[in-house]
Amino acid sequence: MTTDTLDLQCINTLRTLAMDAVEKAHSGHPGAPMALAPVAYQLWQQELRYDPSGPIWPNRDRFILSNGHASMLLYGLLHLSGVRRVTRDYRVEEVPTISMEDLQKFRQLDSVTPGHPEYRWTSGVETTTGPLGQGVSNSVGMAIASRWLGATYNRPGFTLFDYDVWAVCGDGDLMEGVASEAASIAGHLQLPNLCWIYDSNRISIDGSTDLAFTEDVGKRFEAYGWRVLHVDDANDLAALSKAYRTFKEQRGKPTLIIVKSQIGYGSPKKQGTAAAHGEPLGAEEIKAAKKNYGWPEDAQFLVPDGVRERFQERLGARGKQLRTEWEKTFAEYKKQHPDLADQLERMQRRELPEGWDKELPTFAADAKGVATRESSGKVLNALAKHHPWVLGGSADLNPSTKTYLGFSGPMKPGDPSGRNIHFGVREHVMGSIVNGLALSKLRAYGATFLIFSDYQRPAIRLSAIMEVPAIHIFTHDSIGLGEDGPTHQPVEQLPSLRAIPGLIVLRPADANEVTEAWRIIAQQKSHPVALVLTRQAVPTLDRTKYAPASGVAKGAYVLSDSEGTPDVILIGTGSEVHLCLEASAKLKAEGVKARVVSMPSWELFDQQDEAYKQSVLPDAVRARVAVEQAEVFGWERWVGLRGSVVGMRSFGASAPLKALLQKFGFTVDNVVKEAKETIAKAKQ
Ligand SMILES: Cc1ncc(C[n+]2csc(CCOP(=O)(O)OP(=O)(O)O)c2C)c(N)n1
Ligand SMILES: [Mg+2]
């Protein structure tokens, strides 16, 4: 068999596997894989520096399928190239990540072939895609990571990091706003190692892109500072190769390759129509398409002889050689640069570097205190100084979020080693880039005002689904920010972040709780964190008088207690904890026994055993008052039906802080009043 015929057979295998799997599942998207099979095949076989037998080799090229609805294309590639399964503790097993049986269980319960590709669930999937625009946005984070790692860890004679990031995307991806943010910052940073391959089939779900998407995408990307290449036919392997080569040889800026394709290629009735997008082709149409491919019409899930071998001898052999050479280089590097090698080994296992916490500050008691954003800035700098792969930035709010690393410089197009990333006013892609950096094993953070968490919620959610320890920092966390008014005052954001499964929300009460919060953040391996901080000063509590801040690790702890069983428990978070303390003092003076609980994290508290939970919130005390400058939603879980909440039930208002606290009831008198009423109610 000639080379060309076998290549075509491999491509048609990818196509027919997708058609058969979608048909068997009675659901899925056959059309894009049918069209894109040659595009992905040529890339994997000719260019991708990837070793199926070592799929977590750190310098591998990253391949992202941003149009995640075409998941069967990726599953087919992972299957045919024999990518191995990797365990949660990073062991590569002698088992394929996707077996033939797995392909046949496409979209079924517990299978490793879910509807859209999921990182952590299926080895070989580099990021979770499906929400259009996210994959390409993650790719920018990965490309930044490759450059930063190279600038930080490569040494003369040791090129440890120079990998490329390839992302396949569709019309939908490029219609999404987040992809525009991503392309804009990638162009600004002149990322030379980033290549997006755009499946320009001029079809999306509603039909022709003439209905809603008619701009000149190429011109738009040129304006962003990208190189734009064109391939007029997705089946033209030589033209594809030429474009891939141009990307690799010319560099200097990111590359967009616009590939014209026909969705559902080969299907006589559905090719080029939206009908090939999101449903099985049907038995008759599949037969007809197979006939067009020169395929046995009745064969199902057929992998002809020679196909797997072809993947082995091209992608497999090249990848294995590159990985083996890299490992040799790394072994030598380890001898000459043992400290750096140690960092890289820990990084790859998501472990902490030696001495990471040695300068974490403790803050002296101070009644006037300091904003938690301020103390967080100090703690972050102290952490990052001894934790070399902590990096990040803000969405154009550094002076406000206090997230600048003073000892490092900005990341720049010509100098990718800076640990301060200026994301610009691009909150959404900041979240997605942070995810891309976290997927590259860096401890990345992005910061903005809590109100704008809404602008990056899709990325926060995905960091939780992917179980990556992304760090999302939010300052100006309540109506307490004052005069900027209700557009800037978060109300429902805190409860809505708490609703995201797996996300740890931390709202520390004072500077020492901030230190403890960062201690917890640093130790995360598979949970993203939202760190919620004040704009305004809060007292630094006297820890000789109150319980130590290490209680933060348990999510909630008794900060100050009454003698004997309390009449009421006041539960506060963040800036409201000191208010609870003041109220408890007043209650005490009036003969009412109050306990104060600081509850920086619901999620961490929920993970504690029953005995601990009871020790903090005993069933016997039903009079409980939660105090928090946020929508009250969800607090009944902790205060119970007899409890009450001093919180927000409306949007805020533009006014000086004092007036707002008065208006919305965040005063000692109001908390005292609420406590007494709750005690009375609980007795009924
Ligand atoms: C953010 C987001 N919005 C909507 C969808 C639902 N959706 C899935 S595919 C698709 C159309 C995508 O069109 P295109 O990228 O051109 O893919 P093609 O049909 O050409 O394969 C839509 C709207 C989604 N997955 N993500
Ligand atoms: Mg399309």
From TrEMBL:
The keyword Transferase applies. It catalyses: D-sedoheptulose 7-phosphate + D-glyceraldehyde 3-phosphate = aldehydo-D-ribose 5-phosphate + D-xylulose 5-phosphate. One of its GO terms (cellular component) is cytosol. The keyword Transport does not apply. InterPro entries: THDP-binding, Transketo_C/PFOR_II, Transketolase-like_C_2, Transketolase-like_Pyr-bd, Transketolase_bac-like, Transketolase_BS, Transketolase_fam, Transketolase_N. Pfam families: Transket_pyr, Transketolase_C_1, Transketolase_N. Keywords: Magnesium, Metal-binding, Thiamine pyrophosphate, Transferase. Binds 1 thiamine pyrophosphate per subunit. During the reaction, the substrate forms a covalent intermediate with the cofactor. One of its GO terms (biological process) is pentose-phosphate shunt, non-oxidative branch. Transmembrane segments: none annotated. Thiamine diphosphate binds at H69, G130, P131, L132, G172, N201, H277, F452. It is an enzyme of class 2 (transferase). The active site is at E427 (proton donor). Its cofactor is thiamine diphosphate; Ca(2+); Mg(2+); Co(2+). Mg(2+) binds at D171, N201, I203. GO terms for molecular function: metal ion binding; transketolase activity. The record marks H29, H277 as: Important for catalytic activity. Its EC number is 2.2.1.1. PROSITE patterns: TRANSKETOLASE_2. Residues 370-540 form the Transketolase-like pyrimidine-binding domain. Substrate binds at H29, H277, R373, S400, H476, D484, H488, R535. Belongs to the transketolase family. Homodimer. This is Transketolase. It comes from Hyalangium minutum. The lineage of its organism: Bacteria, Pseudomonadati, Myxococcota, Myxococcia, Myxococcales.
